[in-house]
Amino acid sequence: MIRLANYFKLLFSFLKDRGVLNFFLLGFCILIMYKGYDQMKYYLIILLLASLAVQYIFLLRKSYVFYLLRFGLITALLFEIFFGYLNKKNAVIEPTTITDNWYIKDSVLGWKFNRNQTNIKSILVNGNDTIYNVSYSSDSVGRRIDIEDSNVNVKTKHAIFLGCSYTFGLGLNNDATFPSLFQQKEGEYQSYNYGFSGYGPHQVALLFSQGADVINKRTVHQDSGFALYSYMADHPTRVYGGSSYIPWGGTSPDVYIENDQLLIKQRSKFRNRVINLFNISATLKYFDVQYYYPNTENFAKRFADIINYSANQYWENFPAGNFYVGLYPQIQNEYTWLKYLNKKIKVIEVPLPPDYLKNSAAYLIDPVYDPHPTKKMNDFYIDYITKNMKNN
Q: What is the value of pTM for the model shown?
């Protein structure tokens, strides 16, 4: 008891000697918190107060390590305040999406399109302006469908479309997606739209196996036809788990191909938390510092192997079919991975429309708020794809 009493006597003396510093730091932290919630600032303040608490508990009167640590934390805090102000000053107000019951959580894929939905309303508004007001429908497998199509039973060939929100047709009505447009133009084909918002080739591979198993002879009723995976520039980041993807795609699996077998790993929670720091830091956001996929041969091969796996699974079900990779028209692309693709896979690089740069508003839902393709862009894409298929 005597030792404990002496300890508290020393602690109170320690606190008294640093009363001005304590008052200043406490007031500084309260002022910052009063200015509004900011997750990164709160983390820095907690670390700052924790460093003081540890030094006081151990009665460390002089510690250059703690002084340097607090100097770094306070400097980082000031940077966050300054660049947070600049970010807010230059911020573009994000539009609001109103969509009910269109996707559900999935233990294999992370998320998927809800099944058996008819004309789910999806609305994107910016203030008083409506960017789009469309409907989504799905079948019993969770594929997007055009409910106006009434000739399903007379189709002799399949057209399996694989990809992300571009394939799904985010922001477009059921009949304006490029799988639907293809079916409207090519009457002998039945289109199957397996694309969904946020998907990458890792989820495409899972559609063939490992629990999802929704692309097979039971769900696709025509023996002959083709599959088309549509690539866009963000897909490598989705496979790797970059900082622009993890905040909303972190529940997706980490997929690898080893010895032609699909391996599924859960993304590291620690790594996800570290990556999330990139997104909550005002300083990093101001300088657009992001955690990208590595531009290495190993990753390029990993990415291509996932597509090769999907192609091989497709051919196991439909030996006479063709597997295509469509390179969706974009200003920036990276194609190192193409050299590792199975040579049986046919690649079609679609250029930008000739008037795209002068008339981008006709090809994008909204160049500022939602750069997903319009029906006009989808028409251009699928027409180019179709012509190449017929000429080869």
A: 0.88
